[in-house]
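User: I've been trying to design a sequence by hand for this structure and keep getting stuck. Would you show me what you'd pick, starting by listing the structure so we're on the same page?

Assistant: Good idea, let's start from the same input. This is the structure you sent:
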């Protein structure tokens, strides 16, 4: 079975240093036989989580934004993906907003 890798690029500089590093990671993953997809988060319209807990009741986020297109990509990844609430001044807002909306897997 082919491994899947999803790279979420959160820097506002689409061709910056972070993007170059992400591309090197992607190239290495491809060389190892993985199927790689990169998503440039800064170009997406992703709203912050409003802690309504609807995802806990319905199993999916009710916020209608560009995260909807990412859910199928994220759900196809191995169970090893376990994003947690991220609060850091060192993480770009586009990354935290997207990670905050990923429902937990049990």
């Amino acid at each position: 079975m082919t491994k899947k890798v999803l790279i979420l690029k959160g820097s506002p500089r689409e061709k910056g240093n972070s993007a170059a590093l992400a591309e090197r990671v992607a190239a290495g993953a491809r060389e190892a036989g993985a199927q790689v997809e990169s998503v440039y988060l800064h170009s997406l319209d992703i709203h912050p989580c409003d802690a309504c807990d609807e995802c806990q009741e319905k199993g999916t986020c009710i916020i209608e934004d560009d995260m909807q297109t990412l859910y199928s990509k994220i759900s196809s990844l191995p169970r090893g993906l376990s994003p947690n609430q991220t609060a850091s001044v060192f993480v770009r807002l586009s990354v935290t907003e997207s990670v905050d909306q990923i429902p937990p897997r049990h």
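That's my pick for every position. To get oriented when you compare it with your attempt: Residues 80-91 have pLDDT under 50 and may be disordered. DSSP finds four helices and two strands in the chain.
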